[in-house]
Amino acid sequence: MPYRKAEHIAEQLRERILSGAMPPGTKLPSYDALSEEFGVSRPTVSRLLNTLRREGLVTAKGARSVYVAQRLPHHHRYYWVTSEQPGSLEWSRFLATFLELIESGKSGLPGQVEALVGVDGRANNPSYRRLSDAVKQESAAGLMLVNSRAMYQLPALQAEGVPRAAIGAALPHAALVSLAFDELIERACQRIQAVGQRIVVMSPHADHCKAVAERLERQGIEAGRVRIMHCAALGCERITQLLFERADRPDTVFVTDDNLVEPMLLGLQQAHVEPGSVHLLSHCNWPRPLGLSEGVEHIGFDVREVFSASLLCFEALRGGEQAPTISIPPRFLAELTQPLSDS
User: pLDDT by residue (tens digit) across 45-68?
Assistant: First the structure.
């Protein structure tokens, strides 16, 4: 049977289920009845039903009894989507924390969450095919889209449809879950001003370096008390070692990106400096703080809150409301709404 006809039949059955014409738990017509209705063979009916079963729309009981699933994927299946790939240069601890929570079943969302990584828009890309099918078939309760240039260009996301939340920055047809990084910079600067005399700020991001420098200047901290180090993870260890081998070594370090924490701690080790002898403040992605046992203080965004905010966005969009914008605030350890032991 031509593929288009088979897909057309599957689409008709899919529409009956998703529209509610065949509610959850409904027994589908027999193989013979479906074969007669659509004018196809029993093996073809079997293949069509297998397709619907893989999509989570039907379940089989026994050899020939097929029922509409009690929990449909457009009610309980969510996709977290990123164009980045684990192990790539662009893969960050922010993304890794999402993936860890998803794989451990601790996202907090009321259903199944599937991670689609390396989505690039190519037809032969497995993750992109899953995304395209979910949008076309409306077989998802929501899409969490990690903002990137690639996301703007994905054909599957050009039209409205499945509720979606853009994480980090706005995307078309999506609610926005943003991270209040300006507030994080402000609060971190207040903290290091209160505890430090000789302050070093380390960041791989030029805009973060500039923002911290401007904020500390507005707070009235003399320029001679502050060193701004624009450095990547590669090289951070050596820079830290050199800084702490000086006679005027810093007493306070603020790291704006937790990808620098591990090399910074190695640099302290190379300089024979105990972490507890210097105040270390780092951005982090809760609930995965790095260096907690070494005495590092943390301020960052709780990824569990991003999941919760995305769910609120999905519910609002399904209710016909305007796409909301939710800002996630930075938190110190004592301010977390969920303890680390729950993750």
Answer: 888 888 888 777 888 886 678 888
For the chain, give every domain's residue range.
3-70, 74-173, 181-300
Q: What is the mean pLDDT of the chain?
A: 91
Judge: domain 181-300, CATH 3.40.800.20: no
User: Which of 271, 264, 270, 338 lies closest to 296, judged by CA?
Assistant: 264
Instruction: Specify the pTM.
Output: 0.81
What is the C-alpha to C-alpha distance for residues 276 and 279, in angstroms, rounded to an integer?
7
- Please name the CATH architecture into which domain 3-70 falls: Orthogonal Bundle (1.10)
Residues 252-299 have pLDDT tens digits of 999 999 999 999 999 999 999 999 899 999 999 999 999 999 999 999
Could you tell me the end-to-end alpha-carbon distance of the chain, in angstroms, rounded to an integer? 50
DSSP string, 229-270: EE--HHHHHHHHHHHHTSTT--SEEEESSGGGHHHHHHHHHH
Name the packing angle between helices 93-103 and 303-318 (round to 10°): 70
139-154 pLDDT, tens digit per residue, is 888 999 998 888 989 9
Q: Which CATH architecture has domain 74-173?
A: 3-Layer(aba) Sandwich (3.40)
Q: What is the dihedral of CA 77, 80, 83, 85, to 10 degrees?
A: -100
Pairwise CA distance, residues 212 & 169, whole Å = 21
CA distances to 60, 87, 214, 296 from 77, in Å: 19, 26, 44, 37
What DSSP line would sit under 141-167, residue for residue?
Answer: SEEEEE--HHHHH-GGGSS--S-EEEE
